Amino acid sequence: MQLENYEEALGLYARLVKQFPQGGLWAEYGRAAAILGDFNLAEQNWEQVRKLGPNTADHLSRIAAEYYNIRMYSKARELYLQAANIEPRNLEAQLSLAWILARTNSVDEVRAVVNRCLELDSRNEQALYLSAQLNRRENKLADAERQFRDLIASAPRHPLVRYSCHFELAQILDRTERFDEAMTQLAEGKRLAPQAVNAEAKRKTFEEWHEEAVRKTKSLPNNILETWGKSYPPRARAPAAPLAFLGGSARSGTTLLEKILDAHPAVSACDESLAFPVTLSSIDIAAPAIPAQRLNVLRQRYMKILTKLLGPIGNGTILLDKNPTATVYLPAFLRAFPELRTLIGLRDPRDVMVSLYFQNQPRSNYLTFERLAQHYRCVMDAWLAVREWQGLVWMETRYEDIVADVQKEGSRITKFLGLEWHENQARFYESNREKPIMSTNYNDVTQPVYARSVGRWQIYEKHLAPVLPVLEPYCRRFGYA
Description:
This protein has two domains: 6-196, Tetratricopeptide repeat domain (Serine Threonine Protein Phosphatase 5, Tetratricopeptide repeat, Alpha Horseshoe), CATH 1.25.40; 200-477, 3-Layer(aba) Sandwich (Rossmann fold), CATH 3.40.50.300. Helix content is 58%, strand content 6%. It contains 24 helices and five strands. The chain has helices at residues 6-19, 26-35, 39-52, 57-69, 73-86, 91-101, 107-120, 125-137, 141-153, 159-175, 179-192, 199-218, 224-231, 254-262, 292-310, 330-336, 349-358, 369-386, 399-404, 406-416, 423-426, 428-431, 461-464, 468-477, and strands spanning 243-248, 267-271, 318-322, 341-346, 393-398. The protein has a five-stranded parallel beta sheet, with helices on both faces. Helix 5 packs antiparallel against helix 6 (91-101), helix 6 (91-101) runs antiparallel to helix 7 and helix 7 runs antiparallel to helix 8 (125-137).
């Protein structure tokens, strides 16, 4: 496992658990299976862990964390809830439940759990932070601001709380038109955030991967799909459900679009699943030939993970993988799924920059405008190269068009998937309240569409000034000049 020889490790674990069924190796066995994308086997092993272990909150919480790590959120939430019910006075169990419930829009439900935490420990930093966040989400901005300022003044020891308070306070300051103060709070949050992770090493590795992927993509000829199709024709492909990919830069409205499409009865959407990274990311797009058998193995593994995460799916249902982080690796997706429909979300690049700068995502919350612009350029360069490929089935959609007329633009996109607009899609925010959302804008996409984020960059133009020349070519290419 430490050498990342996961397939060999999986075989050894299978032998070990037979020889030592009480040996406590089931959790590691499950982890190895999950890394290789066999979520069914992982679940079987973690259920064995549950049976062999004590019925305690700590034990259930550890298993719940395994499910959370592979983004099986419904199962994780179920186990965290059981853990909290088993030991109502176990503060850690209550906090774990509160955090996962906060990924939904059940504010009342989260509030009840947070209040329970505060009854157990009125000074608990995580509970106080979540209480303030709930007030911000309910638009009780004055109360939320006071709570966040009090927390900051108390010099919180919890790393996430320490920097996240500044990001939350910045959101409130932005909403109340104290824009320079908002930027000051963001600067402090970004100063503190890298202290919680090895940010520089992660950033360097991330950027190197992306730059190499873009370089390979740009080196491919425009007829590459035809070339790949000759060695992997339809008759050689393993059967798969209709599949669409939703990508683009982060903060381009992809989460909103996913929720609108997911509300259609014939669409089942997955939010940033692990199906791509644990399967198709291993494909070398520069390889002259990849055996059809190998592609079929990856193709079947991908579909198996996606359907596992989505649950029961009806015949003919279109599967939608919303995964902006995989946009740079779209060629690998197309090599395994040449029939893939590709939908790309666009938004004014300057608005994208401001929105990204405000986000409190661990993998990017410490980045400057310069670094964010570099990442945007990388993602969109990959897309601009791929969209020139002959035979690609693709569509671009603008965030501004969606917020201007949800049904008009939504109908156009739904038709691209081969479907007609459904009345449920106009009320997408009602059907998604309980579905965990990876993006930090989980509150925004569970309410009716609003247009206040359009043209927001102009408020922060002086802060954006250093990267405007970098963004200008993309503004022209995508019609935002």
